[in-house]
From TrEMBL:
Residues 192-261 form the Phosphogluconate dehydrogenase NAD-binding putative C-terminal domain. Belongs to the HIBADH-related family. It comes from Nostoc paludosum FACHB-159. This is NAD(P)-dependent oxidoreductase. SUPFAM superfamilies: 6-phosphogluconate dehydrogenase C-terminal domain-like (SSF48179), NAD(P)-binding Rossmann-fold domains (SSF51735). Keywords: Oxidoreductase. The keyword Oxidoreductase applies. Residues 6-144 form the 6-phosphogluconate dehydrogenase NADP-binding domain. The keyword Transferase does not apply. InterPro entries: 6-PGluconate_DH-like_C_sf, 6PGD_dom2, 6PGDH_NADP-bd, HIBADH-related, HIBADH-related_NP60_sf, NAD(P)-bd_dom_sf, Pgluconate_DH_NAD-bd_C.
């Protein structure tokens, strides 16, 4: 199959950036924007994504549909696309690139394949691909090799196996480290602030754990507008670990941290509104004050 048109579900921060890269390298991208928000429409327009209106039309025009959504929306989106596939009678390639547990991605594969579609499990590691060589898309499944065509259009696609669940499992383990660490760092810095030990703790971390200090300085400012998405991701990681007979409670706690952050003024910002240069002490002060209000 020659990929010429990629349907994007949905052109949010990550989906829009992926589409922009594909468009810049000569591939056509489309989205079904009926009933979508003004922000989503603006992001799509900025990336030159063509609006085809309905999901049915998206299936008609696409060779590949790439699902990049919040975890909670992954199954419903697949069900709606599967219905369109069955209605149109077209066997498109559906790529689930959401941060979801392997067990869930296997159930989604069944939904797509039972309605006549083909399925690839994928996971995105790294930021939205606005800077070359910083974002990887891992893929698994018997049709995963088809997705490697996108390497010719600016994306770093890496096939790691032919089993559905491998790519998602990799994402779960990696995000458990990176976003789990960010959650721990967020909570402990808030704790230090409330104890009046901000500077003393940061001086010690900067001295004895300089690489960790760099990670927290980089990760916390960009985390706050994404916290609402990371709640579900931590819950998916918890489900993954529980299925492996490991404790899920660590990541349920991380979900709780992001649940608090998303209710703050920083958590309510969009990625476009977020000030990446906002000083870390200011972020922690705001989170400390506003999560205390949420807690209360």
């Amino acid at each position: 199959m020659q990929i010429q048109t990629v349907g994007i579900l949905s052109p949010g921060d990550m989906g829009q950036a992926i589409a922009a890269v594909l468009n810049q390298h000569g591939l056509k991208t489309i989205a079904a924007l009926d009933d979508r928000s003004d922000r989503t429409r603006q992001l799509a327009a900025a990336a030159n994504i063509k609006d085809v209106g309905s999901l049915k039309q998206l299936v008609i025009e696409s060779d590949v549909v790439l699902s990049v959504l919040v975890p909670a929306a992954a199954t419903q989106a697949a069900q709606e696309v599967a219905q369109a596939i069955a209605s149109v009678g077209k066997s498109i390639l559906y790529v689930d690139a959401n941060a979801i547990a392997p067990e869930k991605v296997r159930s989604i594969a069944q939904i797509i394949e039972s309605n006549g579609g083909q399925f690839v499990d994928a996971s995105i590691i790294g930021p939205p691909p606005r800077v070359p060589n910083r974002t990887r898309i891992y893929a698994s499944g018997k049709q995963a090799i088809e997705l490697q065509q996108l390497r010719d259009y600016g994306l770093d696609v890496r096939v790691i196996g032919d089993e559905i669940g491998q790519a998602s499992g990799l994402k779960m383990c990696y995000a458990a480290l990176t976003k789990g660490l960010t959650a721990i760092g967020t909570e402990l810095l808030i704790a230090a602030h409330r104890l009046g030990l901000d500077q003393q703790l940061w001086d010690e971390v900067s001295s004895s754990q300089p690489e960790l200090a760099k990670i927290l300085t980089r990760s916390l400012p960009s985390m706050t507008p994404k916290a609402h998405r990371w709640v579900g991701e931590m819950e998916e990681i918890a489900d993954t670990f529980q299925a492996l007979d490991l404790t899920e409670r660590i990541f349920q706690g991380a979900a709780d941290v992001y649940r608090l952050v998303k209710e703050t003024s920083l958590g309510r910002e969009t990625p476009e509104e977020n000030d990446r240069d906002r000083p870390l002490p200011d972020i922690i002060t705001t989170l400390s004050q506003e999560t205390l209000t949420v807690d209360g």
